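Work Package 4 report. The design task specified in the project plan requires that, given a folded chain encoded as structure tokens, an amino acid be chosen for each position. We show below one input record used in the internal validation round.
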């Protein structure tokens, strides 16, 4: 059994690029600097017992006093001038306290630190899965993800599955953090961070100096928004792709764009989807694809609407070719993105995840991300979104985020140190390569996306760790000879709540999903909050798709999902059709790709 509590799980690091750089406080330096500090009683070594199979230490004791320990651990995580977990997470007191709570709940998987058999070792590892046969879930490890490649976990994997087993690379792919360009934690790093959490985050207030967030949200749409939307009527990617003759999927023989996808069944064709379009009576919903696996995180589609991609599936992630309905397994994890000119795509977790779309057009049986059409751009972090400048560079944005895997309305724990990282990229004819990254301050903003034209940013905005609305910024980028000087003035604020927004290709609309909340009963048309029909939506977990005109700030609900059904991860294809995914608790592992023409009906 465990010789001392190891309350270490930081579940919010599940998808973080968590690590440090040369600016982080070195562990040895922090130890030396504290030589005169009063020492605390050292916990006994977490090590193998005399009768157990020899095992490396899970973590080693650290004798720093509380304050220097907090300074060293928080610096390694990215508090201060270093870049580490703060690349993806706002390291506020609220965030760290929440991680500590998750830590103590997740520690139950470590039933022993000296497993003596393959059965015991596998039991530990299986505890990090959400259910029988499911993939490892990094959220069940928390900060242990930062030690997933260290000696102790390696020994557990070898005991459970044998040296050289395929289980170890599977484990590393699914679990090990960081996933971005930040260095992995060493054992010394892990010991210090783990000790701070084992003690319950002493001196947290001393090392994390929170700045109060803005007060609530006041809607503000500046004239620059209408000016931009007007310009995009001819210069946006919807117009450019049309002028270039991009063939849109499902439009052959259609008299107009509204006539596309006519060969696919309407949502009214099935009992389980018959009422989905009731929120927008004039619109049409079509069922594009049903599949029998659980997708992971968001879904995105190619500009022409032919390919749909998401994490999850037998290969780790999946691309669907809607021309045949064929599911293409891909050796990657999640976070798909497609360039707006229909030229390429990315799927995070692949060995060389940035690929030309010609790879998909070649009708592959699977994608390994070792194909010659693929290349590596290691600087771009997780939760990236893509844009492109006509005749110029491709762009990606990444930064602080809150993981959204469809389990409810996401929080918005973004702090004063919030930032967005813009990466301009070029295609050489054989590979993608990055120019110097540009990091810009976006306090109390996160989950940032970039518009198809790369001229707008949209972020979810924080107020008391919840979302107050969306912030719209214009991107003013000036080439300086090697990269760009960038300014991002705020031109709009929208006081609505929702997750995973996406821009239309003409950049007039954003689309997002929103889970039914307790205060929603009135505007949804119910007589009271206790109305049984409303309570069914609320208690069973129900999410709908919303469309917002950025020139007016008016949101419209465009789906009416049944209790327990979640319409999620909406996004546009180039011609204005909206795609989204529906998950239904009543039929686990059965998901549906749906198309809506709601935006087209409002033109």
């Amino acid at each position: 059994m465990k010789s001392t509590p190891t309350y270490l799980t930081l579940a919010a690091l599940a998808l973080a690029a968590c690590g440090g750089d040369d600016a982080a406080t070195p562990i040895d330096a922090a130890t030396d600097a504290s030589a005169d500090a009063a020492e605390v009683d050292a916990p006994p070594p977490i090590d193998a017992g005399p009768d157990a199979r020899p095992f490396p230490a899970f973590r080693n004791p650290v004798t720093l006093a509380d304050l220097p320990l907090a300074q060293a651990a928080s610096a390694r995580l990215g508090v201060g001038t270093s870049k580490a977990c703060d690349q993806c997470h706002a390291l506020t007191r609220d965030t760290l306290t929440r991680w500590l709570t998750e830590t103590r709940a997740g520690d139950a998987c470590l039933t022993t630190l000296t497993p003596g058999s393959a059965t015991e070792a596998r039991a530990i590892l299986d505890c990090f899965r959400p259910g029988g046969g499911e993939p490892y879930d990094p959220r069940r490890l928390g900060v242990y993800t930062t030690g997933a490649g260290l000696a102790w976990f390696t020994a557990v994997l070898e005991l459970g599955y044998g040296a050289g087993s395929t289980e170890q690379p599977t484990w590393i792919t699914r679990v090990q953090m960081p996933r971005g360009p930040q260095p992995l934690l060493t054992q010394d790093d892990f010991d210090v961070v783990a000790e701070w959490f084992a003690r319950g985050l002493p001196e947290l207030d001393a090392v994390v100096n929170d700045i109060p967030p803005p007060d609530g949200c006041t809607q503000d749409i500046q004239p620059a928004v209408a000016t931009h939307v007007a310009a995009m009527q001819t210069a946006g990617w919807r117009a450019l792709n049309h002028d270039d003759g991009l063939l849109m999927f499902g439009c052959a023989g259609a008299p107009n764009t509204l006539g596309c996808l006519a060969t696919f069944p309407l949502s009214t064709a099935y009992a389980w989807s018959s009422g989905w379009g009731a929120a927008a009576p004039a619109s049409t919903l079509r069922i594009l694809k049903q599949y029998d696996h659980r997708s992971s995180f968001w879904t995105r589609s190619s500009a022409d609407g032919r390919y749909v991609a998401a994490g999850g599936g037998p290969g780790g992630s999946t691309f669907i070719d809607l021309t045949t309905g064929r599911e293409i397994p891909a050796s990657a994890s999640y976070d798909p993105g497609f360039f707006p000119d229909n030229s390429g795509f990315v799927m995070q977790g692949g060995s060389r995840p940035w690929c030309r779309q010609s790879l998909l057009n070649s009708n592959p049986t699977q994608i390994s991300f070792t194909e010659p059409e693929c290349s590596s751009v290691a600087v771009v972090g997780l939760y990236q979104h893509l844009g492109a400048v006509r005749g110029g560079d491709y762009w990606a944005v990444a930064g602080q985020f809150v993981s959204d895997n469809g389990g409810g309305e996401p929080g918005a724990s973004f702090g004063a140190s919030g930032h967005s990282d813009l990466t301009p990229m070029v295609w050489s004819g054989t590979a993608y390569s990055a120019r110097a990254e540009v990091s810009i301050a976006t306090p109390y903003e996160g989950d940032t996306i970039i518009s198809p034209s790369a001229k707008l940013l949209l972020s979810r905005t924080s107020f008391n760790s919840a979302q107050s609305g969306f912030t719209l910024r214009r991107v003013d980028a000036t080439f300086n000879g090697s990269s760009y000087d960038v300014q991002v003035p705020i031109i709009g604020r929208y006081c609505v709540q929702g997750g995973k927004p996406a821009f239309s290709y003409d950049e007039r609309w954003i689309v997002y999903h929103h889970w039914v909340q307790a205060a929603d009963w009135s505007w949804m048309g119910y007589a009271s909050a206790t109305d049984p029909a409303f309570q069914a939506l609320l208690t069973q977990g129900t999410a709908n798709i919303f469309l917002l005109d950025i020139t007016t700030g008016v949101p419209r609900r465009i789906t009416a999902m049944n209790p327990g059904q979640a319409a999620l991860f909406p996004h546009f294809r180039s011609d204005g059709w909206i795609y989204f995914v529906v998950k239904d608790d009543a039929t686990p592992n059965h998901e549906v790709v749906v198309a809506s023409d709601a935006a087209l009906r409002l033109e």
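DSSP finds 13 helices and 28 strands in the chain. Validation will be extended to a larger panel in the next phase.
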